[in-house]
Amino acid sequence: xxxxxxxxxxxxxxxxxxxxxxxxxxxxxxxxxxxxxxxxxxxxxxxxxxxxxxxxxxxxxxxxxxxxxxxxxxxxxxxxxxxxxxxxxxxxxxxxxxxxxxxxxxxxxxxxxxxxxxxxxxxxxxxxxxxxxxxxxxx
Length: 139
What we know:
The chain is an all-alpha fold. Helices cover 74% and strands 0% of the residues.
């Protein structure tokens, strides 16, 4: 089986999960920054299902199948940014003791950081597709 053909669909699942957050979830949070409003990490509707296992599996397959270096750089940026967002910004949304102002400030941070993730994953998808179409794909 040619595992490189799975990279784009898996990255696309990760991309659309992040895009959904960007255009649906985050604007709702910006409009109504309620402390403690984010569902539990593994509760139904949790954003964690957008990333596990799709994001990490896509990144591992991109590395193993030798995706182009620019695509891997985009993926490294997106993974680093998502780790920062999930570990530093996300906990504020679940904290019922946070103020509305703090939640709003973190929602703005999330919007910009997640925007970087959306663009980086989209770029990686395009770079991988371009490499897959070229007859001799240099790494």
